[in-house]
Amino acid sequence: QLQLVESGSGLVQPGGSLRLSCVASVYTLDYYAIGWFRQAPGKDREGVSCISRSGGYINYADSVKGRFTISRDNAKNTVYLQMHSLKPEETAVYFCAADRDARDCSLGLYDYDYWGQGTRVTVSS
Q1: How far apart are CA 13 and CA 15, in angstroms?
Q2: Interatomic CA distance for residues 19 and 33, integer angstroms
Q3: Are 105 and 2 in contact (CB under 8 A)?
Q4: Residues sharing a CB contact under 8 Å with residue 12, sequence separation 6 or more, in sequence order
Q5: Cα–Cα dist 84/76, whole Å
Q6: Which of 17, 31, 55, 101 has fewest C-beta within 10 Å?
């Protein structure tokens, strides 16, 4: 079964930047669409961004458009989420997830079968 491991947790000031990484335990990562999700304290998990198998299709939640960038390097079995201009309300545990053989990608929780354990991001002064 596919395993995903997130990294990049940390404390960042409002307006700051952070890059998250998701490393997969497969050589053929291009079989999988990848999504990033987050869950803030006391709130439901929500979709943030996703990227298709080859990287040709990308989607972002409206709240992060223009500030976050998702990318993938299939040769390194890794997907990244570069976050800029972070806001305190974006404090959350961030998860990556994989959807095998997806046509494009989705921000819906139930479309993904494989999940990482999450990495904690705190945005505070």
Answers
A1: 6
A2: 19
A3: no
A4: 18, 86, 121, 122, 123
A5: 23
A6: 101
Instruction: Report how far residue 57's alpha carbon sits from residue 60's, in angstroms, rounded to the nearest whole number.
Output: 11
Q: How many C-beta atoms lie closer than 10 Å to residue 117's C-beta? A: 11
Task: Determine the residue type at 40.
Answer: A
In this structure, the number of other CB atoms found within 10 A of the CB of residue 61 comes to 16
| pLDDT number for residue 28 | 82
Question: Are 15 and 124 in contact, with CB atoms under 8 Å apart?
Answer: no
